[in-house]
Specification:
By secondary structure, the protein is mainly α. The protein has one domain. 81% of the residues lie in helices and 0% in strands. It is built from six helices and no strands. The chain is elongated, with a radius of gyration of 23 Å. The N and C termini lie far apart (58 Å).
Length: 199
């Protein structure tokens, strides 16, 4: 009985180690399902553009002959995949900010504020409008920064095409893709910390 329990424990530990190593190999996180049609524009367009860049990158790598160059491009491709996931998470959060703004209904709050006759109502409505302003500012900043990184992905795909025909820029390509991932991760974390008003 005891040997059986020991064997089960060892098997469980081995499975856990394998799963951790596998997560590290695929970029340190569980892959997520990316569906741009679950979000609205402009977020959908950002994700679609990022997915198009990912497809072009994969096509480029597929056409490279087996060898060290292809291995390096494949390794960088793991970071490209991670960037696409981060892009989708950020886009989904941006879409949520749009939903929040619609629910806050700023035009209605403005009309109510104009009709308000007591200090308590005026103060409450002003606070709601200030919160909406912060949400809108975060939304606009997210849109601009995400668009910039998606554009950068397109540029890096063009660089990958150059690398695939012999231009020795794999280090620049890897650094560029890593920078995009870092920017998108930072944006995602900033959005996670954003407190949106309840409606």
């Amino acid at each position: 009985m005891i040997p059986l329990l020991i064997a089960l424990v060892v098997a469980g530990v081995a499975t856990g180690v394998w799963q951790v190593q596998r997560r590290k190999r695929v970029g340190g996180s569980r892959r997520i399902a990316i569906d741009p049609f679950t979000i609205s524009d402009p977020w959908r367009r950002h994700v679609q553009a990022a997915l198009a860049a990912q497809r072009r990158y994969r096509d480029i790598v597929r056409d490279v002959a087996p060898g060290p160059l292809r291995d390096r491009l494949t390794s960088i491709g793991g970071q490209v995949d991670h960037a696409i996931e981060e892009c989708f998470v950020v886009a989904r959060r941006g879409d949520e900010l749009d939903d929040t703004l619609r629910r806050l209904d700023v035009p209605s709050l403005d009309r109510q504020l104009q009709r308000a006759t007591d200090d308590a109502t005026t103060s409450s409505l002003s606070a709601q409008l200030a919160a909406a302003g912060r949400v809108r500012s975060a939304r606009e900043d997210t849109d601009a920064r995400l668009r910039m990184q998606v554009t950068r992905m397109g540029e890096l795909t063009a660089l990958a095409a150059e690398v695939s025909v012999g231009t020795d820029n794999t280090e620049m390509l890897g650094t560029g893709v890593g920078d995009v991932v870092t920017e998108l991760e930072g944006l995602r974390l900033a959005l996670q910390e954003l407190q949106t008003p309840r409606t």
